[in-house]
Write a structure and sequence with these properties.
Blueprint: H1 6-19, H2 26-33, H3 37-49, E1 53-56, E2 62-65, H4 74-80, H5 99-125, H6 128-141
Antiparallel strand pairs: 1-2
């Protein structure tokens, strides 16, 4: 099963947007996320609808942050993306007739729900400013500048 990397990709571009003095185009974000600009616009629409980013059309337009990173959590971004399924594991059969498989499903379902609740609780505790601070520390250790990072797939 292919992993859903939208959350990681969006967090990546949001941190770049925080560093940019001008709006960031969908094309530039598509390059960072290794995807197409139309995919970026579709993904960013949920964040715009929640008031986390804004978009401007025309020359000099693009996407910019509409809120402070300290007010935005991983959970906020996750929810704005439509709360994608966090785990790739699932049941072999959703409505099994076999009593053994019913017992297996019940045990797995409880574990999946507990793990998801813990993950979402942790997401709610992490503001994007913490990611930006971590980036700043990493940048200082590498003696680089904000433009000195790579976007290889």
């Amino acid at each position: 099963m292919k992993r859903d990397s939208r959350l990681s990709g969006v967090l990546h571009v949001l941190l770049h947007m925080a560093q940019s003095p001008t709006p960031v185009t969908s094309e530039a974000m598509a390059h960072m996320m290794c995807t197409h600009a139309v995919v970026v616009r579709r993904v960013m629409a949920g964040l715009r609808d929640m008031g986390y980013v804004r978009s401007e059309k025309g020359h000099g337009g693009g996407w910019s942050l509409a809120c402070d990173l300290s007010a935005l959590t991983l959970r906020d971004v996750y929810d704005a993306l439509g709360a994608p399924e966090p785990f790739a594991m699932g049941h072999r059969t959703e409505a099994p007739g076999c009593l053994v498989e019913q017992a297996v499903n019940a045990a797995l379902e409880d574990a999946f729900k507990d793990a998801e609740a813990l993950l979402l609780e942790r997401f709610a505790q992490v503001p994007l400013s913490a990611l930006a601070d971590d980036f700043g520390r990493r940048l200082a250790l590498h003696h680089g500048n904000p433009g000195d990072h790579h976007h290889a797939p």
